[in-house]
Design goal:
nine-stranded mixed beta sheet, binds manganese (II) ion, Alpha-Beta Plaits, alpha/beta, five-stranded antiparallel beta sheet, 35% helix, Aminopeptidase, binds (2S)-amino(hydroxy)ethanoic acid
Length: 415
């Protein structure tokens, strides 16, 4: 059966290159933190493109941006498609951005084809998916599905004490629309994303249908010691916060091997105070990101981390405090959307496989309130959250083509 809709590959490519220039780093990456000036610039460009595509644009209280195509039956529950435009500090230009532009290209191509979808389709840019400047991650989709309240999310602050709500206002994206599900609900959600792992590249496959997403726990651990002179203070009796943190961190890095094959743990941030060459550290603050597709493994990992930190502080006469920043449980995507994606892959006659995602995505929040699913395209050498992140453009086009047809199928389902 021929594919019902095709994309405009030139427009798709031009747009991608133009967006990749907004917040670009010298090494072809992106520095476009959520609610920064660069995020504002790319949002402005996105709104322009939604308007050029004759989509109805709305911005909600959390800055989520929607472009709506009405379809035959405007009262029907919409299909949502999209991802995120914010990036890691020195991240890649495909993470999130490819998904938003694929969704825009798909909906614009559907609108231009003579295949009127039965139900509305909305393109979405979700606010602050990365969670690097403001925690929690996936802020926009979390508020939209009601997993966390809009108030608590707007109150999140960055390292400099700026509140997300104030930054939204500063960049002009504190939208009027309520951040909540529509009365008629959401029919389904589909997101295309780069794999951010090596499997597709290793197996030379252009596509994967995603079965689910790992569960994760984010912790921020503050260890309190006592500053003292590095010279005259004998080693015994010191309350060295960094020595205690280092003991705990080396244990945390050994932990996944003892937990489960798919368990991973990362200490991404470390701050030391007063951070002076001849002062025994008074305070050490570090973060832990621990994940597995099995939630019992994540919970067991958190318990073991708590024990490691306690033992290390005992040894070094230090105190500690653990801030439980985020806990997202593992999420399996719905059969319905996975099957629609599989059918679109089959129609396009593209070789593909099924994968589980170690990275978190907005789709996992949408799965709480509707049927959600994802498509992956390869990451060369699995590199990501790194300026070297790369996906062959042919794979982006093949992915967008399949995505557009899966979107159209969902938009015509039980219509
Ligand atoms: O942390 C994640 O998995 C995503 O990149 N926000
Ligand atoms: Mn992402
Ligand atoms: Mn990311």
């Amino acid at each position: 059966m021929p594919a019902a809709v095709d994309i405009d590959a030139d427009r798709f490519r031009e747009r991608f290159e133009a967006y990749a220039d907004i917040g670009a780093t010298e090494n072809d990456g992106l520095h476009r933190l959520a609610l920064s000036d660069a995020d504002k610039r790319v949002r402005d460009r996105f709104v322009e493109d939604l308007e050029d595509a004759d989509l109805d644009v709305r911005v909600d209280e959390l800055g989520n941006i929607f472009g709506r195509y009405e379809g035959e039956n405007p009262a029907a529950a919409p299909v949502l498609v999209g991802s995120h435009l914010d990036s890691q500090p020195y991240g890649g230009r495909f993470d999130g951005q490819l998904g938003v532009l694929t969704a825009l290209e798909a909906v614009q191509s559907i609108a231009e084809a003579d295949v009127e979808p039965a139900r509305p389709v909305e393109v979405v840019n979700w606010t602050n998916e990365e969670g690097t400047r403001f925690q929690p991650s996936m802020m926009g989709s979390s508020g939209y599905v009601g997993f966390e309240t809009v108030e608590e999310l707007l109150a999140a602050t960055d390292r400099d004490g700026n509140a997300a709500g104030d930054e939204l206002e500063r960049i002009g994206y504190d939208g009027d629309a309520r951040c909540e599900l529509p009365e008629e609900g959401v029919h389904s959600f589909l997101e295309l994303h780069v794999e951010q792992g090596p499997v597709l590249d290793d197996r030379d496959l252009p596509l994967a249908v995603v079965d689910g997403v790992y569960g994760l726990s984010w912790l921020r651990i503050t260890i309190e010691g006592a500053a003292d002179h590095a010279g005259p203070t004998p080693m015994h009796g010191r309350e060295d916060a960094l020595a205690a943190a280092s003991d705990a961190i080396s244990e945390i890095n050994r932990l996944p091997g003892r937990l489960a094959d798919d368990a991973v743990a990362t200490v991404g941030e470390l701050d030391v105070e007063p951070n002076s060459i001849n002062v025994i550290p008074a305070r050490a603050t570090f973060t832990v990101d621990i994940r597995s597709y099995d939630d019992a493994v994540v919970d067991e990992g958190v318990e073991r981390i708590e024990r490691e930190v306690e033992a290390a502080c005992e040894r070094h006469g230090a105190d500690y405090e653990i801030d439980y920043v985020s806990r997202h449980e593992a999420m399996a995507f719905s059969e319905r959307v996975r099957d629609a994606a599989d059918r679109a892959v089959e129609t396009a006659d593209v070789p593909a496989t099924h994968l589980v995602s170690g990275a978190g995505h907005d789709a996992q929040h949408l799965q709480r309130v509707t049927d959600a699913g994802m498509l992956f395209v390869p990451s060369v050498d699995g590199r990501t959250h790194n300026e070297a992140e790369f996906t062959e453009w042919d794979d982006c086009v093949a992915g967008a083509h399949v995505f557009a047809n899966a979107t159209l199928e969902l938009a015509n389902e039980d219509a």
